[in-house]
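During the no-cost extension, the postdoctoral fellow (Dr. R.K.) reprocessed legacy sequence entries with the updated structure-token encoder. One reprocessed record is reproduced below for audit purposes.
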Amino acid sequence: MATRKERCSKCGVTLLVPLEERTIYCPVCRGIIICKTRATPPGPVVIYRVWPSQISPQLNPPTPAHGRKRAVLCGITYQGHENSIEGSINDVSLMVNLLNKKLGFPRSSICVLTEEERDPYRIPTKQNIRASLRWLIQGCRSGDSLVFYYSGHASQVRDRDGDEIDGYDEALLPVDYQTEGRILDDEINATIVRPLPLGATLHAIIDTCFSGTFIDLQFVCRINREGYFKWDDHRIPHAAYKGTSGGCAISISACDDHQNSGDTTAFTDNATGALTYSFVRTLEKEPGLTYGRLLIAIHEKISKKQDKIGLKGSHSAQEPVLSSSQRFDIHSKTFTL
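Re-encoded structure tokens follow.
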């Protein structure tokens, strides 16, 4: 892809941008700059979010192409913390294998963040997670398929901007959250949901506690054992917009906002998240299934294991949740990444 150098008029940093781009987003000062030089005739203004090479050369995006697949997989075990998690890195390994070998995601387009990575920019710190989410959405266009996966701790904090029905924001806990703080669902939504363009699809698979509305999507699907479902509207009048820029965002979460999830050896000898294991094994065994069938199958697998270890019906039980930026018939729409 042909490129040229442009200097940010606000902070002075030099950025490498495609020849045809007229407007760029500076990741240093977060300003939007109109390019001075244009190698092509004027056309529609498109914001191109530049991924700065100084952050991490390995994370530079591939050349934009129609129908591109890209994923960010984040697994945090909190090594040395009092509340460490065993299965998060195993979860990420399961997801890498599924996306790469079964669903056609190039390995070079899968960004993995765990504490075991040698690249310091792949450690799941608050700064690195933020940067990876910006990379995920950068340059996204119609036909693209994006995946955000998270396995780690989460928490709830009181909602201060009035956009949560239950009065609480959900928050991702980076490995350095004790010093750098959390990443709120408001920020995750603003980063990877709202910019999603028409024709693009984002799937989030969230294996953590309090995760029902983890990326703040507008509609939450409720389904019973017989497969009957309805969509709950989580939009609040006069609150911040949580929808996309025309694309479709769908999330599959480990549990509801008031529930807990955890890693377990109930499925295999190695600890894994109940949602992750059930999600991966279902897709491996039943290709071409609908969202309804996927959700029911995950429910069944988790319910059987919970019943076996005596958690079914207890406060520790978890019920996977489907949420979306759009309402649709979950029994007719085929799940595809």
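The mean pLDDT is 81. The longest strand covers residues 69-75. The remaining legacy entries will be reprocessed before the final report is submitted.
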